Amino acid sequence: MSTDNPGIDPLDGLRAPQDPDCDVFLTGTVFLDIIFTGLDSAPVRGTESWARGMGSSPGGVANMATALARLGLHTSLAAAFGDDHYGEYCWDALEQGEGIDLTMSHTVPGWHSPVTVSMAYEGERTMVSHGHEAPGPEGTHGTAVPTGEPPFPRCPPRARAAVASLTPGRTEPWVAVAARNGARIFADVGWDETGRWDLDSLADLEHCQAFLPNAEEAMRYTRTDCPRAAAHALAERVPLAVVTLGSEGAYAVDAATGASAEVPAIEVEALDPTGAGDVFVAGFVTGTLADWPLADRLAFAGLTAALSVQEFGGSLSAPGWAEIAAWWQRVRTFAEQDPAALQRYAFLEELLPAAARPWPLRRAVPTIGFRHPV
């Protein structure tokens, strides 16, 4: 398990013997992320740029899986891994380093791992990726699987929740199966390359309990010019609509009660936004499974996302309870702190350990090739 989770179970007191062992299931593509940091400007064509820092970590769907696991949720990931050194590194980092269950994952002989190189500078990022679609849905680590199969599991494990990424015009059969088996489906969505922005094209939306698009996506899908109006329109299609507002925070509408909640964003110095959306979803899933009030869920999701953008990398930057505790301990020492703003996060008091490591916290940045901690 990650050393950043100091024994905190957000679902403590809610677990029962008949509950599934898996808290959250997800599936997707794992990339090897190589992140260059400390660049003063964008690389210039025909020249060589030297970065002052570099890190490597599993990326892609691993960002979300890591964020969930670091918040203490029992996380199961179904993904394909190459049988190259990159694939071995990502498998080990997720299974041994983060405690993520990979029994639904498989290694594909002869398939090389997808790779993303990310360059962070001036608060922005530029990425170059390469990879091929994984041939095969199931199997075990080190076991060959047939080619030509769809890249998702036929029968996902029983889980309290599942996270899906919706694609216009595409249906993932595992989503309906997971929903029938009692999983609460949380979904985000990417940019609609077709330009149609038709909610009816998101077939799996009917299985979702919560839909979490950003403001631009929400407004385009609902033909509205206000993200809050978009959230109310989406609440006519899903039980819970959550629209992220970037630097303004997030807004949510509960369709069952008609209640809405809005929480402003925490102002931080953003170094790298990679994976921040995944961390937000992970925080919201955690709060929902823990039965927190809607505003607390939004606040927690926003806090975890804010902590993540202060570090470089995707899964590298996902905060655990140690980071959250350290932030809470430190922020209360500010003499100029607005008491009302501080009260918004008072619910953390009962969750967090009394003592926390000193702020700021810095993670060890893993590098491929080290076989022992350095």
Which strand order does the major sheet show? 4-1-9-10-11-12-13-14
Would you tell me the overall average pLDDT? 86
Rg over CA atoms? 20 Å
Number of helices: 9
Distance between the termini: 18 Å
> Structural class, from secondary structure content?
alpha/beta
Task: Walk me through this protein's architecture.
By secondary structure, the chain is α/β, with parallel strands linked by helices. Helices cover 25% and strands 21% of the residues. The chain is built from nine helices and 14 strands. Strands 4-1-9-10-11-12-13-14 form an eight-stranded mixed β-sheet, with helices on both faces. A four-stranded mixed β-sheet has the order 3-2-7-8. α1 crosses α6 (276-289), α4 (215-222) crosses α5 (227-234) and α6 (276-289) runs antiparallel to α7. The longest helix has 15 residues, at 294-308.
Descriptive key words:
single chain, eight-stranded mixed beta sheet, four-stranded mixed beta sheet, 9 helices, alpha/beta, about 375 residues
How are the secondary structure elements laid out?
Blueprint: E1 22-27, E2 30-37, E3 53-60, H1 61-70, E4 75-78, E5 80-82, H2 85-98, E6 106-108, E7 115-121, E8 124-130, E9 159-166, H3 173-180, E10 184-189, E11 208-211, H4 215-222, H5 227-234, E12 240-244, E13 250-254, E14 260-263, H6 276-289, H7 294-308, H8 321-331, H9 339-343
Parallel strand pairs: 1-4, 1-9, 2-7, 5-6, 9-10, 10-11, 11-12
Antiparallel strand pairs: 2-3, 7-8, 12-13, 13-14
Helix pairs in contact: 1-6, 4-5, 6-7
